[in-house]
Write a structure and sequence with these properties.
Elements lengths: L11 H14 L11 H8 L3 H13 L3 E3 L5 E3 L19 E2 L14 H9 L13 H13 L7 E4 L2 H12 L5 E6 L3 H9 L3 E8 L2 E2 L1 H8 L5 E5 L12 H11 L6 E5 L20 E6 L1 H4 L6 E5 L1 H13 L6 H12 L1 H27 L11 E5 L3 H10 L2 E2 L1 E2 L10 E5 L8 H12 L8
Helix pairs in contact: 1-3, 2-3, 4-12, 6-7, 6-11, 8-9, 13-15, 14-15
Length: 441
């Protein structure tokens, strides 16, 4: 707790370094409230402006956030490798929080690995880079979804791609319009890069028109959206919504638009792109959800300048995604058995979403989740809802991980849900979603 932590420092840089060390050691865990500026300044014998500069530096690096009247707090996931904290899952608790694909539904990697072992041929420095065969296969897959793919880069997963896109185009202090609620990792990355998140409200059809209009008034340099299988709400851009958003963006060709399509092969809705026309744009498709989280690979399509920036920055750093990994992905893309496994997974996840939707409807509980691995359920009190569900044997995610200013909710992962368990889970969610009774009532 901050009250027990010994803050130190005689300058803005040393005060910030001391707080960062506390986060790294676990002495200042996520969510910890820091002392008010004037209180800490008095404690350390410094000017208030010195502490304010320390807090500003920590905020720019994504370590702390300003929570309005709640003051300054350590972010839920600061970009620091902190000491691990043991949080064992209680025995018998069903995990509906992880957001992971069902391992039983992933394609068998055995054939791809055996083919690789038979002819390993690892690349040397001169041969490294995107494999022409992988790029050709990617272009065909993207073309089937209407994505222009004249220019391609290969990155180590979707988040790596988003990191490189933002870093190549934006500078600290620039604004990013990002979905709210939205994937918490995007919010964390934006903060870690010293960028400013501009909330973009979401409904079942994607970012709202009114929300984008308000966001554009704040002059963002980038609009980042998830095309379908939105995490956490399951939203999917419709053609009508995409057209309306594009009309708002058309007068602003300098704004980078990024479409994240991380669950493309598992999607039951057609792809509707936000970008893809004139101006700066990028489309990201990863392999993690349909083929396995350990396959850290994504393809990035976009305009020539945007893709060149991503590829050029990779050349100065990691260089390329392992050609061995690229060959495994290429094998999976070309393997009929792997394609059949992805088809089965797509159908299974759709069935499991419907199972929980229908079971919740029996209790009059509204839920969002047209696509993807999760349902988003509005609740009156997140902490109460998570506690009630834990007491009933279920682990779910509190919506605070995904919200900037959106109303409270919980995220329930359906990837391993069974038909037998759906009614009991729905009954528990219904009890959890109700407004808690005031004490003494």
């Amino acid at each position: 707790m901050a009250e027990q932590y010994q803050f130190t420092g005689d300058s803005a840089s040393t005060v910030a370094a001391g707080i960062e060390a506390g986060v790294r050691r676990g002495d200042l865990p996520p969510g910890t409230a820091l002392p008010p500026v004037r209180a800490l300044a008095g404690q350390l014998g410094l000017a208030a402006g010195t502490v304010a500069r320390a807090y500003a530096d920590l905020r720019q690096r994504g370590i702390v956030e300003t929570a309005g009247r709640h003051g300054t707090r350590i972010r839920p996931r600061p970009p620091i490798a902190a000491a691990p904290v043991a949080t064992p899952t209680p025995a018998g608790l069903r995990d509906h929080a992880a957001g992971e694909p069902d391992p039983a539904l992933l394609p068998d990697l055995g054939p791809a690995l055996r083919a690789l072992a038979a002819a390993p041929a690892p690349a040397n420095y001169a041969q490294g880079g995107p494999l022409p065969a992988l790029c050709a296969a990617a272009r065909a897959r993207l073309a089937a979804d209407g994505v222009p793919a004249d220019h391609l880069a290969v990155t180590a997963g979707a988040l790596d791609a988003i990191d490189r896109l933002l870093s190549a185009h934006l500078r600290p202090g620039d604004r990013v319009a990002v979905e709210d609620p939205g994937w918490g990792r995007f919010h964390d990355l934006i903060a870690a890069l010293g960028l400013v998140a501009v909330p973009l409200p979401v409904d079942d059809d994607g970012p709202t028109v009114a929300g984008l209009r308000r966001a554009l008034a704040e002059r963002p340099s980038c609009v980042l959206v998830t095309s379908r299988a939105h995490n956490p709400t399951g939203a999917a851009l419709t053609a009508a919504r995409a057209a309306a958003l594009q009309a708002l963006l058309r007068p602003h060709p300098h704004i980078l638009t990024i479409d994240d399509d991380h669950s493309a092969e598992l999607a039951t809705t057609p792809l509707c792109l936000l970008g893809g026309g004139d101006g700066a744009w990028a489309y990201v498709r990863s392999t993690a959800k349909p083929y396995g989280p350990d396959l850290r690979l994504a393809v990035v399509a976009g305009d020539a300048a945007t893709v060149a920036r991503v590829a050029g920055r990779m050349n100065l750093g990691s260089g390329w995604v392992s050609t061995l990994l690229q060959r495994i992905v290429l094998h999976l893309w070309q393997d009929p058995a792997a394609a059949a496994a992805v088809d089965r997974a797509r159908a299974a996840y759709a069935d499991r979403r419907r199972l929980l939707h229908d079971a919740l409807a029996v209790h009059g509980v509204a839920a969002h989740g047209r696509t993807g691995l999760n349902l988003w359920i509005p609740v009156a009190d997140e902490a109460h809802a998570v506690t009630v569900l834990r007491d009933r044997g279920y682990q779910v995610s509190a919506g605070s991980r995904y919200r900037l200013g959106a109303p409270p909710g919980i995220r329930v992962t359906i990837s391993t849900l069974t038909a037998a368990d759906a009614p009991a889970l729905a009954a528990a969610v219904a009890a959890a979603a109700a407004r808690p009774r005031a004490s003494g009532v």
